[in-house]
């Protein structure tokens, strides 16, 4: 059994990750919060035996095998490297860091320590995206030419906080949502982005000039071009993911979500039909792969290197939106 420590008493851990840890044979034994009272209340509410207030207490705990980091983004670097040096495996929320060099340093520290580092890109665990990847690999749409991702949603009040008012924590829609698009596109297309161009928007939710909407295009190594629209501000939009090829199209709806829902239609000369989807909890898929990776059986569903790629793409999108120029994507791996 893998024994977990939570670095951050977060909503995502409470809603998704603690349950996924338990469902896949692990246990959460400790939680770290800088606020002692919050930490105690969180531990009690979620059936966690111990709460601590310092990084040293959690990474120095011999009873912990792995940590899940879900603090604000500017804290990930120090926490992940400390955990790796202490011999703990690390599952870290995206983006891995705010700067590419920091994300690369996290990957390097994990490699040197011989521990597993994974990025919590949940969407590549969705049955819909796995089915699309398999269909493309099997030649069902011929040569992929273009893709579209709609991931404009409404950020609920209980999640608004730092995402809308703390640029120093990596707030804004690009590092929160666009990085997910980048990872999902890389996974589905089995291809890497090389260039980004984008326009951002401040639609009234983001404070201090932080973007709460963005549209843009990524160009991939194969020549595929992919359009994306991300936002915190759209209360009534649906999400979707499309890939169009020379011999067919894959059209997915309501798939850019934490929940195991949505549909995928394959449309080609023979007509259209729904792809069969074996829907399953996305986070349980991630934690199952992570536990197997610790045991030496395969790789995590999204590695540290995958997290570097999505961060590099997000940073290129942000730079393009700020400058109006097309920006090369260079992960430095």
Automatic annotation (TrEMBL):
Domain Gfo/Idh/MocA-like oxidoreductase N-terminal stretches: 3-121
InterPro entries: Gfo/Idh/MocA-like_OxRdtase_N, Gfo/Idh/MocA_Oxidoreductases, GFO_IDH_MocA-like_dom, NAD(P)-bd_dom_sf
Stated name of the protein: Gfo/Idh/MocA family oxidoreductase
Domain GFO/IDH/MocA-like oxidoreductase, chain residue ranges per copy: 129-250
GO molecular function: nucleotide binding
Domain of life: Bacteria
SUPFAM superfamilies associated with the record: Glyceraldehyde-3-phosphate dehydrogenase-like, C-terminal domain, NAD(P)-binding Rossmann-fold domains
Organism: Aminobacter anthyllidis
